[in-house]
Design brief:
Helices cover 78% and strands 0% of the residues. With 59 residues, it is mainly α. The two termini are 13 Å apart.
Length: 59
């Protein structure tokens, strides 16, 4: 049940970073602020998803 957590976290963070890079290119932002914000947001979402999955596990 927990074997896919790393792949889920990686996918969420990767997609968030790609979205941030797209925003930076779309708005021609040289400082890559959207990439940084989107990546941090992706990390927060990934941690939230993992915590929700851990709550469902019954010992």
């Amino acid at each position: 049940m927990l074997s896919g957590i790393a792949f889920e976290m990686g996918a969420i963070i990767y997609l968030a970073a790609q979205g941030g890079m797209w925003l930076d290119e779309h708005y021609q932002n040289e400082k890559r602020i959207y990439t940084a914000i989107a990546t941090l947001f992706g990390v927060a979402i990934a941690i939230w998803v993992v915590l929700r999955q851990l709550k469902r596990i019954k010992y």
